[in-house]
Amino acid sequence: MNLKEYLAARVQAVDAALERWVPAETVPPQTIHRAMRYSLFAGGKRIRPVLCIGAAEAVASAYSGIEDAACTLEMIHTYSLIHDDLPALDNDDLRRGRPTNHVVFGDAMAILAGDSLLTLAFEVLSKLPHANDAVKASLIKELATASGTVGGMIGGQVHDIEGERQTPTAALLESIHRAKTGALLRASVRMGAIYAGASADQLAALSSYGEHTGLAFQIVDDILDVEQSSETLGKTAGKDQAQQKITFPAVYGLDQSKRMAAQERQAAHDALTPFGDSAAPLREIADFIVNRNA
Amino acid sequence: MNLKEYLAARVQAVDAALERWVPAETVPPQTIHRAMRYSLFAGGKRIRPVLCIGAAEAVASAYSGIEDAACTLEMIHTYSLIHDDLPALDNDDLRRGRPTNHVVFGDAMAILAGDSLLTLAFEVLSKLPHANDAVKASLIKELATASGTVGGMIGGQVHDIEGERQTPTAALLESIHRAKTGALLRASVRMGAIYAGASADQLAALSSYGEHTGLAFQIVDDILDVEQSSETLGKTAGKDQAQQKITFPAVYGLDQSKRMAAQERQAAHDALTPFGDSAAPLREIADFIVNRNA
Asked: Cα-flanking dihedrals φ and ψ of residue B99, to 5°?
């Protein structure tokens, strides 16, 4: 398979879904829709929606409308970036190579744009045109739990903020990242599997894939923050160290961190064994996540 | 019926549901759960959950577990207050007679506490123990739409912020309030009706009740901001005029505003005619909303 073509086709489908579900800039109140779209269409890699679609493809051959479910993951991810970048939180003014949402629209509108994307994600899942009510409820449970305070994304952010004042241990590091980025990446894979009607065994195997891929993603993210320039990353590099964040390089050093990323990639591959060829895209995505340079 | 006893029993059931669904302050990360609970258990009147339960009672005699659905309305309402009070938005430091969330926990935690309550509302609806999947999906659609940008709560907030710079006209006033507070109050009633299995006719009648009650609520809110002290309201009085907000007294004057509130109350009563005695609580709640002094 050609990963570049594969990703381009999936990203196009996800972007088309976002285009359909997010109100146009001409719909009043216009400012909020402009702010939502500014960050949503800022050239994100759409890793979470692509993982969702890849998981559906691993499970079944029919998963019509999966891009509608997948695009809600990008709404949640984007809302978290907008709020994270606010002056009250990470105070970052560069994201994906452009000024952050609050720099362009002001803090008030950035807060409301994040709230709106979070709300819209659940509205879309409740209205999925090609899913039955049991699947809708199940997807909403997955997404809400993974985004929440107990083992989910917000919980990880709080741990992260509080971790700046704590001793960086391996246990603290893992619990932060399992929640902060891991939970949503795992949910991305699980939502695709559920959408496509996965069995309990298939869901367990894909959850394992999602966990290992998620950890690999975060380790590489931490490494890139040390090794790459702000220009390459499209966001401020070297921030973790400046803010004394707990990172894999800080706890394990760069070399050991790279070995750990490779191990997680291998464990992700192992979890896919039962799926054979239908999981080829998921294997390539795990490799892509580990080998990326931005 | 005795309204005071009626309300006390419903509020107790809703508070018990909130107590069950919101993680305890001892669950890590503790700070965020403390922040969520601080604003959630600050002595709110629980008007939205009570409207939800009252609507279910008007429709049917069996609606087991309605308090689980009803309490999500208080989560959404409370999240909106926490974010609204932030320095970047209304910059208010007094709410329900106590320092606002960000004054106690800081802006970062207040933003995340609001995000968490918003997320938890949908998690709870996806896990309702006594509702089938069709009802869950329908309730989530109602709540998300009423909270969103197009005719919903966030849309109203944006209109309100932008309205500070516009000429106060009757049309602008109505569109702001229909979205800002009206949509969630209407959804409160509709969610109770849907939970209890309302027919299309019943849902339409109760929607009309919700719209008129919601408008009455907002008119009275605007009047109280002019006539009452901060001490009585438990929040800063006279802010609307100071911030040049578009209000009913500003557009119509106090006397005409009071007449309008009475008319909306009457229209709310009229909508309940088909329900007879089972809607007695909803009638009393409409009266209570119009006659309150805080």
From this structure: -55, 145
pTM assigned to the model = 0.95
Phi/psi-derived region of residue A46, left when phi > 0, alpha when psi is between -120 and 50, beta in every other case: left
Give a three-class secondary structure readout of B9-50: HHHHHHHHHHHHHCCCCCCCCHHHHHHHHHHHCCCCCCHHHH
What is the rounded distance in angstroms from the CA atom of residue A96 to the CA atom of residue A103? Answer: 14
Using a CB-CB cut-off of 8 Å, the residues of chain A touching B183 are none
The ipTM estimated for the assembled molecules is 0.95
Does A32 reach chain B within 8 Å, measured CB to CB? yes
A window 162-221, beta carbon within 8 A of B: 162
| Amino acid in position B94 | L
Domains assigned to chain B: 3-286 (1.10.600.10)
More confident call, B185 vs B243: B185
Q: What is the C-alpha end-to-end distance of chain B, expressed in Å?
A: 23
DSSP for B172-207, written as a single string: HHHHHHIIIIIHHHHHHHHHHHHHTT--HHHHHHHH
B149 vs A contacts (CB less than 8 Å): 23, 29, 32-33, 36, 116, 119-120
How many whole angstroms separate alpha carbon B193 and alpha carbon B172? 30
Q: At what angle do helices B66-85 and B183-195 cross, to 10 degrees?
A: 170
Gap between the Cα atoms of A247 and B76, Å rounded: 34
With beta carbons less than 8 A apart as the criterion, state whether B73 and B184 touch: yes
Residue B30, CB-side half-sphere exposure with 13 Å CA sphere: 2
**Tens digit of pLDDT for each residue in B237-283?**
677 776 777 889 989 999 999 999 999 999 999 999 999 999 999 99
Whether the per-residue pLDDT at B76 is higher than 80: the answer is: yes
DSSP string, A216-240: HHHHHHHHHHHHS-HHHHTS-TTHH
Contacts 24+ apart (CB under 8 A), A20-23: A21/A68, A21/A71, A21/A120, A21/A124, A22/A75, A22/A120, A23/B149, A23/B150
Residue A136 touches partner B, C-beta closer than 8 Å: yes
Check CB contact of A157 with chain B, cutoff 8 Å: yes
Coarse DSSP helix, strand, coil percentages of chain B, rounded to the nearest 5 percent: 75, 0, 25
- The 8-class DSSP code of residue A182 comes to I
What single-letter amino acid sits at B174?
E
